[in-house]
Amino acid sequence: MSETTPTAVDVLLDAFGRIPDLLHDVVDGIDPGLLLRQPEIDGVRNNSIGWIVWHIGRMEDAQVADLAGSAEVHASGGWGERLGVPYPASTHGYGMSADDVSRFSVASADLLTAYYDAVHARTVEVVRGLDGSELSRIVDERWDPPVTALVRLVSVADDAAQHAGQAAYVKGLLGA
Questions:
Q1: Is 128 or 3 the better-scoring residue by pLDDT?
Q2: C-alpha span between 54 and 166 (Å, rounded)
Q3: Which residues form the DinB-like domain (predicted)?
Q4: 131-171 confidence digits (pLDDT tens)
Q5: Is residue 2 in some structural domain?
Q6: How far apart are alpha carbons 1 and 133 in whole angstroms?
Q7: Among 38, 98, 152, 175, which residue has the least CB neighbours within 10 Å?
Q8: Burial classification of residue 168, based on how many CB atoms lie within 10 Å of its CB (0-12 exposed, 13-18 middle, 19 or more buried)
């Protein structure tokens, strides 16, 4: 029996493949009120589960589309209108205040996870199509050292996993 050494693409697919289950574990069957509730800790309102999951999808969608040179799933699939999120289509959640987050609403938890599932499917499609030379391509020269496609994808997977953990923590905090 011979074993093959996993490639960078294999590792990326494994990392991204873990995110949907994490999000579904948090969101599936959740009470709609808990989805939008911002827990307050020491007088500070924090991000709601729904907002965190939406942000994961928007962040991954935008980063992968930029890397692939294609349209975001959000735009091409009409997700902005379907989700009913109160922000402009270009919004990803970066730098939002607690007041901005408190305006978050979504048509349903099922649509929220369906959007992420569509983003995930696009991410898998893009990652599967990459080879070594594409993974080495510089995608952002604003950093020192410049960011390669591989480093960007690792960052996106890491960010998504961290935010999924935050959503699970908030769910536990709210007693769900």
A1: 128
A2: 13
A3: 17-167
A4: 878 999 999 999 999 999 999 999 999 999 999 999 999 99
A5: no
A6: 30
A7: 175
A8: middle
Sequence-distant (6+) residues with CB within 8 A of 23 are 53, 56, 113, 116, 164, 167
Of these ranges, 50-59, 103-112, 137-146, the one predicted with the greatest mean pLDDT is 50-59
Q: What is the CA radius of gyration of the chain?
A: 17
Question: Is 3 within the bounds of a domain?
Answer: no
Q: Is 91 helix (H, G, I), strand (E, B) or coil?
A: coil
Residue range 83-99: mean pLDDT, rounded? 92
| 120 Cβ contact list (under 8 Å, min separation 6) | 16, 19, 20, 60
The domain in which residue 154 lies consists of: 8-173
Amino acid (one-letter) located at 18: R
Strand partners, 40: 45
Please tell me the total count of domains within the chain: 1
Residue 47 is assigned to a structural domain of this protein: yes
Residue 168 near residue 161 (C-beta atoms within 8 A): no
